[in-house]
Amino acid sequence: EVVKVEKFTPLRGMSGGIHVMLKTGPEEISVHLGPAWFFENQEQQIEVKDHLEVTGSRITYEGKPAIIAREVMKGEDVLVLRNEQGVPQWSGWRGGKNAGQAGRGRQHHGGWGQGQGQGKGQPAGHRYDLNAIETLSGKVLKVERVDSRKGNWKGLHLLVDTGKEKIAVHLGPEWYMGKHDIEIAAGDQLNITGSRVTEGQDTYIIAGEIRKGEAVYTLRDEAGKPAWKGWRQGKL
User: Fold this and answer.
1) What are phi and psi of 5, to 5 degrees?
2) 3-class DSSP state of 131
3) Distance between CA atoms of 223 and 130, rounded to whole angstroms?
């Protein structure tokens, strides 16, 4: 049972993190979840008196036992914080050689999920089609902030010239992208893997993975679910 939820700042200049104090019966133990900015943008929160099942790595923190959480169960819902290699789902660019392509055999990433529900910044029933995955290369012509359909958040879009076409590429919500060391600017050469979507006369790419030189940024898992997504239902 959760007896305390607290936000802390480990070092000056670092973003705050979320810890919960969990009473397991014989002991109370601190569970380290992740950055506050990630949790504050989820539809469901962890609160005092919640009953949780936590999977993670036991460590010693400031002389006391603690758990770095990889997965948290709350009822039938699962919070996936790290993949099986321990890589946080909110981490940004990664070295490129060993990264898998979006929609092609990577481990699950993401946050809370409930059925096909969404976290903030991703409309329900989004059109990411696993049967329309492609990889394209091109030069960024423009980076822009675009209002969501509901107008309650900003998304980051690119206009990319592939040599064959100029096409819009949808990345993700600004609140998520802005918390990572992602520097994409006009003139950059990118390799983009994602789903091609056609709506009326508009065609665009929903990005699942971006490669810039040797760096890779993963935005969606192999099922097309976004890294910033909210609740999932049942154990993965």
Assistant:
1) -120, 125
2) helix
3) 7
CA 131 to chain centre: 22
Q: What is the pLDDT of residue 111?
A: 44
Name 93's Cβ contacts closer than 8 Å, sequence gap at least 6: 180, 181, 182, 212, 215, 216, 217
pLDDT (0 to 100) of residue 15: 63
Residue with tokens 């070295």: 95
What pTM value is reported for the model? 0.62
**CA–CA gap between residue 46 and residue 220 (Å, rounded):** 24
Is 88 in contact with 79 (CB distance < 8 Å)? no
Instruction: Please report where in the chains the tokens 């409930």 appear, as a residue.
Output: 114
Q: What's the average pLDDT block by block, 10 residues per block, for the chain (236 residues)? A: 86 72 92 85 85 93 90 87 79 51 39 38 59 96 83 83 96 80 88 94 93 89 78 50
Q: Provide the token pair at 228.
A: 């910033």
CATH topology of domain 94-103+122-225: OB fold (Dihydrolipoamide Acetyltransferase, E2P) (2.40.50)
Are the beta carbons of 15 and 179 closer than 8 angstroms?
yes
- In 3-state terms, what secondary structure has residue 210? strand
Parse the chain into domains and list their residue ranges. 2-75, 94-103+122-225
